[in-house]
């Protein structure tokens, strides 16, 4: 199973009861149980002519993200969503600044060698 994160905007027109029903549907689709509620936010720009929305964001594990995406697209109260694959910290690659400098030095030395060989060939 891979880890994923779903973040979606739920229409701001819902009352508290309807919002709770929508959150329960999403939790069921994701196969999680969560008591954390969606929070109301003001959008930086209008989305589907709405300037506000409820922000719902959850992490979960799944084998079939395409099926989850298909079910979420069928929900009428979701304005927009994004489903991303979460990378574990031990899987992520970080390059230290010293490593970058070493790579640049290697490239420069390789270029010098190439230039020297090119000069030899041209002299002949």
SSE order and pairing:
Elements: E1 2-10, H1 16-30, E2 39-47, E3 50-62, H2 65-73, E4 78-85, H3 97-123
Antiparallel strand pairs: 1-3, 1-4, 2-3
Describe it:
It is a single chain. The chain is α+β, with helices and mostly antiparallel strands. The chain has two domains: 2-85, Ribosomal protein S6/Translation elongation factor EF1B (Alpha-Beta Plaits, 2-Layer Sandwich), CATH 3.30.70; 96-124. The chain has three helices and four strands, in the order βαββαβα. The protein has helices at residues 16-30, 65-73, 97-123; strands at 2-10, 39-47, 50-62, 78-85. Strands 2-3-1-4 form a four-stranded antiparallel sheet, covered by helices on one side. A hairpin with a 2-residue loop joins β2 and β3 (50-62).
Indicate the structural class: alpha+beta
Taken together, the total number of domains comes to 2
Number of strands: 4
The overall pLDDT, averaged over residues, is 86
CATH superfamily of the largest domain: Ribosomal protein S6/Translation elongation factor EF1B
Unreliably modeled segments: none
Strand order of the largest sheet: 2-3-1-4
Query: Helical percent range?
Result: 40-55%
Query: Describe the biggest sheet?
Result: 4 strands, antiparallel
Strand content: 25-35%
Name the CATH class of the largest domain.
Alpha Beta
Second-tier CATH architecture of the largest domain: 2-Layer Sandwich
The count of helical stretches stands at 3
Distance between the first and last residues' Cα: 62 Å
CATH topology of the largest domain: Alpha-Beta Plaits
Report the radius of gyration as a whole number of Å: 25 Å
SSE order, as H and E? Answer: EHEEHEH
User: Which geometry do the CA atoms define?
Assistant: elongated
